[in-house]
Amino acid sequence: MERHQPAGVGRLIEIFLTSLTTLPMPWRTAPLGLCLSGGVDSSALAIAATKALESAPEAFPQGVRAFHARHGLRGSESSGDAASVRELCGRLGLALTEVDAIVPHGPGLEARARAARYEAIRLAAGPATLLATAHHRDDQTETVLLRLLRGAGPVGLRGIHPLRADGVWRPFLSVPRTSLAAMCEECGWTPRQDSSNLDTAFARNALRHEFIPALEQEHPGISDELAALGDAAQRLEPYIERALTRLSESVHLTVDDRGFSCDLSHLDDPATDPELELLLDRVWTKFGRRPWAGQQRARLLSDAASGSTGRRAGGQGELAIWGSRKLRIERT
């Protein structure tokens, strides 16, 4: 590993340290754990964090260490990833903890692997450790576009959060993937390439390798605009949260194991109320269900707000029951 800092590396270190200073306490002074896969992005994260520690050790009062989760899904390729992470951490002088993250069976391999990875690393690191991942600007673009294509509203368009409530931190969300790749190259490190990232059967890979490049060719700059949309939605989050909290209290929203209930008596036109739409989207999503389609939901809310009594099946097997301008949604 080269001892000097090539052009561009200093800027990434600055971004890393600046992002750290914006974190709330106690995360700002917590032990820092780096989630490393062996790929370009996480390799750049390891290099930047190590150089930041060298230049500003006071910013890391409880030190920095690395974590690598082994899924074992790709045979010798997975073993090669682990060996690469070991070599990089050895060169950088980073303490490394390797953990097994067994992926349970079921649909959505990427989501299951991600959940298993976070769970295993969090268990090894402890609840008070700040866990840094190498999510970047391109990841933000892909996430916002995926959610747009799935019909997400303003809340869903927030994309990837810089800091999750459980202490997962993304310091490079403003940095394009090309800058992270350039950092590895400038520092003389050759990262691993995950062959599964080329499989366009996965929706995100199809966007990354086919759809977004085609969009960029037709509309240059669209990637940055999509990422900026996610940033704007995040800035609106505190206002949206306050509005939804007030509305939740106003409609006496109650949630239990089987479903949820609300009182529409004080709303002028529930079928066209945008805040109510966001609130119901959130509750449906909490139960792992897809919100009812727009026309179906509007008809349901109109019927419930009319004062009539009735029931109707809809969505993914839910039952809606209403009367006296009160609405109940139950899973069946």
Sequence-ordered SSE layout with sheet pairings:
Elements: H1 9-21, E1 32-35, H2 40-55, E2 64-70, H3 76-92, E3 95-100, H4 109-125, E4 130-132, H5 137-149, E5 168-169, H6 177-186, H7 203-218, H8 222-250, E6 254-255, E7 259-263, H9 274-286, H10 294-305, E8 310-314, E9 318-323, E10 326-331
Parallel strand pairs: 1-2, 1-4, 2-3, 4-5
Antiparallel strand pairs: 6-7, 7-10, 8-9, 9-10
Helix pairs in contact: 1-2, 2-3, 2-6, 5-7, 5-8, 8-9
Any overview of this molecule?
The chain is α/β, with parallel strands linked by helices. Helices cover 47% and strands 14% of the residues. It has ten helices and ten strands. It has helices at 9-21, 40-55, 76-92, 109-125, 137-149, 177-186, 203-218, 222-250, 274-286, 294-305, and strands at 32-35, 64-70, 95-100, 130-132, 168-169, 254-255, 259-263, 310-314, 318-323, 326-331.
